[in-house]
């Protein structure tokens, strides 16, 4: 471990409402010298950064914000070169002894780009820590006033709609499907095959000012859409 | 909706570290007139209450703590009568126009006793809200420095060890199994059947002073034990 080097701290900033940050996340963001906030496009503001902007605005000391580009592409080689580039940017700060907080929507352990960058940096011998965040699906459940699991119910979390859902849905009591709006038709078809009664709802932009909750599926293509399907137990005949 | 009545607010207090409460939870606990903190035994202190005690100690105003008994029993009828009793206790406060915060370990939507009491109270026409909390498994992942899901990986969350696991494990990339220590031998047998390579770790008393992280399974019987199994993809032959 490089003892005179800074450490990388992955911070989950929760689904959208700045009040859903943890006390630990707020304290860290009030004092860390460098904030790394990836953005998906040079033209679009970072959602994670907008969530913590109020905390940063309250600081009277100097701090740096670095915003590496992480485009939403599927090409694995291209993605890896973006991650490596972000890692180099962060490492140059760590080498100067600066701690760097990498902010990420939701929780850093759940489908976060943080993990790819953290692996590169951890493998190079730097200290990496994580501060957990409210993940989108518990945020959605709270907004919608429903539970995700009770008693011995099994919860399934799937990051996107694909054909594997057909094989696994029958084993779940609750299915959380993230980023559903782009393939909501496929999701509907798969869910329809399950003979159980079900309660379906979707939450878009959870915790944000334009949060919307729908009965059923989300069809309008917004990126931050999560669908929760609660299956009722089949009665024994 | 009874407009002059108080509302019930389910608050997830996270896995153990008081700094993992959200800002919203702290603000609410600093001002709410009644805190409901169920305890599993008259002799044992409530874990959830101990997590928020520091916040309550900082208050200069008057507040009430009510501690209904929710024993850890399996008898459904007996349990329902405990829930109904707790609901009455809370309703008597709501009827006096007092808001009541029901504190619960982790998140109120994930295997929380809050849900049973909230249903009774909601059905009686009172307003019920939820403030999400850091759930134990993202807390465990952060403590252990691992991710739960990356890319298109499927996460399975199971509240306790039972035979259903055998049918469903093969569909998961990551399995989170809660309260594992009482049946860790059964869990080991089931996991062994899966031909994939795997990384297994267990976290006990996550976020608390006596937190412990084990390689493999937890065998010492502590209640707050979570085991995380990450499966490696089988190579195509």
Automatic annotation (TrEMBL), chains A, B:
<protein>
    <submittedName>
        <fullName>Precorrin-2 C(20)-methyltransferase</fullName>
        <ecNumber>2.1.1.130</ecNumber>
    </submittedName>
</protein>
<dbReference type="GO" id="GO:0030788">
    <property type="term" value="F:precorrin-2 C20-methyltransferase activity"/>
</dbReference>
<dbReference type="GO" id="GO:0009236">
    <property type="term" value="P:cobalamin biosynthetic process"/>
</dbReference>
<dbReference type="InterPro" id="IPR035996">
    <property type="entry name" value="4pyrrol_Methylase_sf"/>
</dbReference>
<dbReference type="InterPro" id="IPR014776">
    <property type="entry name" value="4pyrrole_Mease_sub2"/>
</dbReference>
<keyword id="KW-0169">Cobalamin biosynthesis</keyword>
<keyword id="KW-0949">S-adenosyl-L-methionine</keyword>
<dbReference type="InterPro" id="IPR003043">
    <property type="entry name" value="Uropor_MeTrfase_CS"/>
</dbReference>
<dbReference type="GO" id="GO:0032259">
    <property type="term" value="P:methylation"/>
</dbReference>
<dbReference type="InterPro" id="IPR012382">
    <property type="entry name" value="CobI/CbiL"/>
</dbReference>
<dbReference type="InterPro" id="IPR014777">
    <property type="entry name" value="4pyrrole_Mease_sub1"/>
</dbReference>
<dbReference type="Pfam" id="PF00590">
    <property type="entry name" value="TP_methylase"/>
</dbReference>
<comment type="similarity">
    <text>Belongs to the precorrin methyltransferase family.</text>
</comment>
<keyword id="KW-0489">Methyltransferase</keyword>
<dbReference type="InterPro" id="IPR006364">
    <property type="entry name" value="CobI/CbiL/CobIJ_dom"/>
</dbReference>
<keyword id="KW-0808">Transferase</keyword>
<comment type="pathway">
    <text>Cofactor biosynthesis; adenosylcobalamin biosynthesis.</text>
</comment>
<feature type="domain" description="Tetrapyrrole methylase">
    <location>
        <begin position="7"/>
        <end position="216"/>
    </location>
</feature>
<dbReference type="InterPro" id="IPR000878">
    <property type="entry name" value="4pyrrol_Mease"/>
</dbReference>
């Amino acid at each position: 471990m490089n003892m005179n080097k800074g450490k990388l701290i992955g911070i989950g900033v929760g689904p959208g409402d700045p009040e859903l940050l943890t006390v630990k996340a707020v304290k860290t963001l009030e004092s860390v010298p460098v904030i790394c906030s990836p953005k998906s496009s040079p033209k679009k503001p970072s959602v994670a950064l907008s969530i913590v902007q109020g905390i940063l605005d309250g600081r009277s000391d100097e701090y740096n914000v670095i915003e590496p580009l992480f485009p939403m592409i599927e090409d694995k080689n291209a993605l890896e070169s973006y991650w490596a580039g972000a890692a180099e940017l962060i490492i140059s700060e760590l080498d100067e002894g600066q701690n760097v907080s990498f902010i990420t929507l939701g929780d850093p352990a759940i489908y976060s780009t943080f993990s790819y960058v953290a692996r590169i940096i951890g493998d190079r011998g730097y200290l990496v820590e994580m501060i957990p965040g409210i993940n989108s699906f518990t945020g959605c459940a709270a907004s919608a006033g429903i539970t995700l699991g009770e008693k011995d119910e099994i919860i399934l979390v799937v990051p996107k709609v694909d054909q594997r859902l057909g094989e696994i849905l029958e084993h779940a009591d609750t299915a959380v499907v993230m980023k559903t709006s782009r393939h909501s038709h496929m999701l509907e078809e798969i869910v329809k095959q399950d003979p159980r009664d079900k309660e379906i709802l979707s939450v878009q932009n959870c915790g944000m000012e334009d949060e919307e909750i729908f009965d059923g599926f989300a069809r309008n293509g917004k990126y931050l859409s999560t669908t929760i399907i609660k299956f009722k137990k089949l009665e024994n005949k």
